[in-house]
Amino acid sequence: MTAATMTGRPIRPSHAKRDMALLGVALVVVWAAVTVSIDPLKALELPGGIGLVFYKMFLEEGPDWSYLPKATSGMVESLQMAWIGTAIGALLSLPLGFFGAKNVSSGLASNIMRQILNAIRAFPEIILAIAIMIPLAGLGPVAGALALGLHSVGTLGKLTAEVIEGIDPGPVEAARASGARPIQIQRWGVLPQVLPEIVAFWLYRFEINIRAGAVLGVVGAGGIGFSLQQTLAFHRYPLAGTAIIVVVVATIVVDTASGWVRRRIIEGAGGRSAVESAEAMNSPLRADSAG
Amino acid sequence: MTAGAATARRPTRPRRSPVVPLGIAIFLVISWASLSKDFGIGFDLGKLITNWSNLVTVLVTGSDSPARRGLLIPNFAFLDQTFEPMLETFRMAVIASVLGCGVALPVAFVVSRVTSPNLATLFGGRAVLSVVRAIPDILYALVFVAAVGIGPLPGIAALVLFNVGVVAKLLSETIDGVDVGPIEAARAGGANRTQTVRWAVLPQVLPNYVAYSLYTFELNIRASTVIGIVGAGGIGNLLFAQYQFFNWSNVSLIIIVLFVLVVAIETISIFLRRRLV
Question: Is this complex's ipTM strictly greater than 0.90?
Answer without folding.
Answer: no
